[in-house]
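batch_manifest entry 22 of 60
target: Putative myb transcription factor
source organism: Heterostelium pallidum
requested by: lab member K.T.
priority: normal
notes from requester: please return tokens only, no post-processing; we will run our own comparison against the previous entry in this batch. if the run fails, retry once and flag.
--- input ---
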Amino acid sequence: MAIVYQYTAPYYWSSPQNQFHPATAVSSAASKLTPTFQGATPEQIAAFQQYQQQQFIQQQQQQQFQQQQQQQQQQQQQYQLHHSLSSSSLSSDSESPILPLKRQFSSDDINSSYGDDNLNDQDEDAGSDIDEEYLQEEQLKSFLQPFIKQILETKASHSILNLISDCIKEYITVKTMLSKIKIICKENQLDYIYQTLVQTFIKVDGDVKMVNFLVDCGVEESDLEFVKDIELTQNNMEVVKKKRERKRESISRGLRSPPNKWTKEESQNLIRLVTENGDKQWKKIASKLGGGKTGAQCAQHWKRVLSPEIKKGSWDEDEELLLFQLVDKHGQSWKNVAMEIKTRTDIQCRYQYFKATTSRQTPWSTTELELLTKKIDQILSHSYEVTSFQQVAKHLARAKTTKIPRTALECKMKWNEICSFYQQQNRHIPQQQIIPLYRSDQNF
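--- output ---
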């Protein structure tokens, strides 16, 4: 058996005692060696696989512990949802908006939207979905404001708002949220709050499917009697119809596309106007730009699509590490996270976080480990160290070994794990079984 493993101590690992100093020529040569299964005994391969499985279990336990800590912190702090909702100035008798309502959340939402192309500005209407999402969010806030005010006036406001928050953040299901809120309302004689919540679900979505969904979530038919007096849509055909009418109206006014759509020419004009007027006077910029654009649309399109400060494409390991640190600090308040990162939008931060956490739930296969070591061996054959793991992550992504590609930070963590394992194993290998710390084809 001939296995040894050393690596660049200043970059990967702080050398323990009884090991040679990283500045020696021997360690410099060893830094270019990669872990390999060639010549290893079945017992050593099995030991590494067992070690890898233990590391995976420990990571899962650590994630669960962190989630529990976050939940405890949320219970100790005042729920902040009503602060964001109270910022709206619309009255309680505003019309019900036509808004999509997410009924369930799963990793499939992340999988189906994977890719960095959805934030590029190469297409004619790039960024339009982002602007529309922002406007829908603001409209939803104003619509929910009266309901949130009702909750805040009750003694059980903290418990109810915490349940809504946990549901939004996917800690609990909609069914669990509704059942617990119903119990709280009965105990505190707040039945009208529960009924208003159910009515809000229906009014926001306006779809027959929502009624069926609420029934599946345990809402009793007696709580849905009011539906008879509401004109519901079938498969949201009314939404589609209104969008078509809006587009026809825009064309009749001489616009090439609806106000929430952005053409290349409009984007170029926006860049020019921001350069001339700065990134604060959005109403003035919108009036000069024309085309039916509002100040909010101009601001969002600039901050999320056109701003030169915003980076596009994949994240490097340092960015992702900072992202996880800020999530530990702010929770899933993506606007606060993005404000500290500065080079990524709140949408990018949210997407990268869920993509990374979902990917880590999948154990590494032998094929992935081989691809990882071969790619790093290739890099080290031309360089003293791996300066960035982005190219390693892209190499694994092209192989399509997992549904969600590994991130740069994940590749770096796995590489360090392999390094640590082989370093520990070498302490128990007899001296005659250790191969020389240099290669025969290298001169030092």
